[in-house]
Amino acid sequence: MAWWALADSDYNVRGTEAAVTVENSWWAPGEDRIFPAYSEYENESGRIGIINQSGPIDTKNHPFFKPLGTNGRACVTCHQPSDGMSLSVKTVRERWKASDGKDPLFAAFDGSDCPDLPQNEKSSHSLLLNKGLIRIGMPWPPETYKPDPTEPEFDIEVVRDPTGCNLSEEWGLNSANPTVSVYRRPRPVLNIAHMVELPHGVGPHNVFFYSDKTLLPKDPETGEFVQGILMADARGLTPRNQAKDAAKNHLELKRPLTEKELQAIEEFELQLFGAQSFDKVGGSLSGSSTPPGLGPQAPANIPRGRLGNNPVNKVFGDFSMWENLDSDPASGADEEARFKASVARGASVFFNRRFYINDVGAYNDKGLGNPFKRSCASGCHNTLGMGMDMGPFPMDLGLNNLPWQNTRDDLPLFKVTCHEDAIPQSYLGRIIYTHDPGRALVTGRCRDVGAAMTQQMRALAARAPYFSNGSSDTLRELVDFYDRRFNIGYSEQEKNDLVNFMRTL
Amino acid sequence: MKHIVRMVCLALPFMHATAWGSDYINFITCPIVRDVGPNVDACFYAQYQGETYHLNPVGVIDWGRPQLKHRLLVEGEVTDDAEYCGGKQIRGRITVLPDIDLSCNEYTPFHASIVGKQRQDKRADNPKYREMFAMMEKDPSVSVQAVPLGVPMESAIKKIISSNERELTIYFPYNRDRIDGVTAGALLAFIDPEREAFERIAIQSYQAQTLLDSGERLNEKEGMAAQRAEKLVRILSGLGISEKKLDVVVDGNNINGNGMHDWKNRHIKLILQ
């Protein structure tokens, strides 16, 4: 029997462990618990399933679960299984309530709006509590960017600083260690094996960036080309690289991770797969009566590094078995059938519905034209089974600046002034007001201002809010943003269908 | 006769060059986007001296399609190919100018008289791909299996490589160091030692001037040829070729333009030795 036709129960019988629906869904650092081979966690839409492919592990001394640094956190603190190995605002608020704000999650260094704020006050952690945002302190000027080292092409000023961190004498841009504080969502440490696979069949872009035809970055340890799409600004090139960055900047570990620790973290991350396994309305998302792109086994089995925007793959596979389940009102289609039909329509809108994509910095100017006409799937969400961008490069969707996003009072506002001899950001020019300069804080290039990496689309139901800056609290808000941003004109039904489709991924 | 030649030379900058039976056009314009059907990508055109021109030069892939909010340098030769996008086709190059120009913001809505071509899905030519498509109805899991891979732009790359097996010329947009996707593919094939053995690579980098029909001369910025060469050296070195094997010659003078394929002067020549 093909893997996609196995029901949950088949899978569990086949595995060494029975399915475990974890009731105490919070994984605290250093707990003496077994992380099962397969576990499920409740969320508002149903349940997410996590496959720990190598089998159960004792988490007590595992470096992903162990508090390694000085603030009591472990990797798992911000990468919770119940939240698709990311962190939802719902979970953040529950932790605040359960710990009276004392959980290591709220560490002053990055779990508060700024370390020099009074840490006992809830308001000092407002960005984490309201939008699930972690403070990222980026050195200014950027550390040398390879392979194309360059002096920063722009100057940066703080226009507004609601958190106080960018003007802080100790932590800010004018401190002894000049730092730009931006606030971003933790990305899911799930299905990482897909994220590190170099693209197949899109040469020369298995070697070259699509955008400027510089070479892809190389893993500093192996010298091999890598995608570098793990983090919002593409600075963490590999799981090991990202783990080193996170250990220093989020766990406040004062020593380098040991080789043994790095290896254990990397091995764990590369064998972890997951997706929504059950929908409260649609029922089980596994088995022969379910489209093969759904369920946690799908990301574990789908080939990696493949372009999926073709009529066979349709990125997340064929949904036709759920089409028209509600076609005959007289047959009294039940709520489940109507939901499944809606999911199938959503998959079709995702793959087929074309619209003009315009003014996306570091994207339309890749050579694609401004505007050009694509669907969600044929445009930026094209990787088979995962939905991130196969022609990797961060892009500026407009989430951090006018005119596409309303100014946010909770985030710092920067003025970026690009030098006269720099190539300007293609659609924002040389003077840019932004809440997050994005990739440009790594490369120092004006054209990269605002750019962030497209995310995978798995486990969405478990990890609200969405986008790197948490600007959409719900999937509906996310769809509404795209609808406004690209003037698509989705109907109410199309919007609902897209939301239903995405919540099953 | 001498008098006539001089007259032609004087007139050249101010009109379409008609020498050797060709029409050369060199101008800066705002591109206009045209909707050519619901399932077809939009196309770009410009009106220039009473004529309409399609702005994706024939045979050029991934050079950098036009962008609204940006002016465009067009350097081309008008072809006899069938019109597209409601305009004559050109052979040559376009360069998107980097600074924003908000006046370049014109959309032309769809009109049934100008319909675009559907992009051809060449995967359908592959029997294995057709077989998978046919199997999907019986076995939906086929839809999440890997489809056969084609080599993108294979024929275009082969054409470049086969034209001169030991030399490769890389052309550049005006004032930019970005190579296009086909050339990037050709570069990978060109330096494959299994194709052609080599000990060293000579790299000759140039920058150039463009003569517009208006008579204006656009000079590439100082250091452009060096910038291109440096980027190429970084690429070759990143691909495993020792810098010691690269003999780089940079000509930093702008080659004079004459309005006929001036874009060809903006190039790097690689010679396997």
Structural description of this entry:
Chain A is an alpha+beta fold. Chain A has 13 helices and 14 strands. In chain A, the strands form 5 sheets. A 5-stranded mixed sheet of chain A has the order 1-3-4-9-10. In chain A, helix 10 packs across helix 13. The longest helix of chain A is centred in the C-terminal third of the chain and has 18 residues. The radius of gyration of chain A is 22 Å and the shape is globular. Chain B folds into 3 domains: 107 residues, OB fold (Dihydrolipoamide Acetyltransferase, E2P), CATH 2.40.50; 31 residues, no CATH class; 119 residues, OmpA-like domain (60s Ribosomal Protein L30, Chain: A, 2-Layer Sandwich), CATH 3.30.1330. Helix content of chain B is 20%, strand content 28%. In chain B, the strands form 3 sheets. In chain B, strands 8, 9, 10, 11 and 12 form a 5-stranded mixed sheet that branches. In chain B, strand 9 and strand 10 form a beta hairpin. In chain B, helix 3 packs across helix 4. The termini of chain B are far apart. At the A-B interface, strand 12 of A face strand 6, helix 2, helix 4 and helix 5 of B.
Highlighted features:
A: alpha+beta; five-stranded mixed beta sheet; three-stranded antiparallel beta sheet; 13 helices; 22% helix; globular; B: 273 residues; OB fold (Dihydrolipoamide Acetyltransferase, E2P); 60s Ribosomal Protein L30, Chain: A; 3 domains; 20% helix; 28% strand
